[in-house]
Amino acid sequence: MTDTDRQTRQRRSAADTREHILRVAHDLFYGGGLHATGVDKVADAAQVAPTTLYRAFGSKDDLVAAYVHRADLLNREWIEAAIRRAPDDPRSAVLAVFDGLRSHLDPATYRGCVCQMTLAEYADGAPRRAAVAAKEWLHARFAGLLRDGGAGDPGGLAGQLMVIYEGALASAQCLGTAEPAVQARALAELLLDRGL
């Protein structure tokens, strides 16, 4: 470790250190898998001692849960930005989410949905709870918009939209193209035409 690395590490606050570790963990977990990526590898790549990592997160499960939560917050940011583009039209707001999905499924950067990947690797525990909470949030957000739009069964319609949304995420990973977002948007529009 160079003197510059030591000085940078010494200047970081606990919050900055935590965020730095999460950024590094994101790249490693997203590219290499959750169980396949060990804490020592994350600590080494982040240039922190394993004790520093454990002080910030407590356990690997806590680190993974924080990684999922961070990815969820970033996801919510773009979704809320899309919804704000159509503030007075719930139907357009829902479709704006599907419109925005295409740029997030760019095959150059998209390897899969962080939550879907977490659910595949964790049958229980904090990481799974974080992933489920992320999916529940989006379902509730869709349901709220649909309720505002006058849907007779906003929860049921939101569930159908979630199936389309989740299918686009999985298909884009499998096929290596953002085209499923276009198809998902068309299906969402058909559902909304029928349900609102």
From TrEMBL:
<dbReference type="InterPro" id="IPR036271">
    <property type="entry name" value="Tet_transcr_reg_TetR-rel_C_sf"/>
</dbReference>
<keyword id="KW-0805">Transcription regulation</keyword>
<dbReference type="InterPro" id="IPR009057">
    <property type="entry name" value="Homeodomain-like_sf"/>
</dbReference>
<dbReference type="InterPro" id="IPR001647">
    <property type="entry name" value="HTH_TetR"/>
</dbReference>
<keyword id="KW-0238">DNA-binding</keyword>
<dbReference type="Pfam" id="PF00440">
    <property type="entry name" value="TetR_N"/>
</dbReference>
<feature type="DNA-binding region" description="H-T-H motif">
    <location>
        <begin position="38"/>
        <end position="57"/>
    </location>
</feature>
<keyword id="KW-0804">Transcription</keyword>
<protein>
    <submittedName>
        <fullName>TetR/AcrR family transcriptional regulator</fullName>
    </submittedName>
</protein>
<feature type="domain" description="HTH tetR-type">
    <location>
        <begin position="15"/>
        <end position="75"/>
    </location>
</feature>
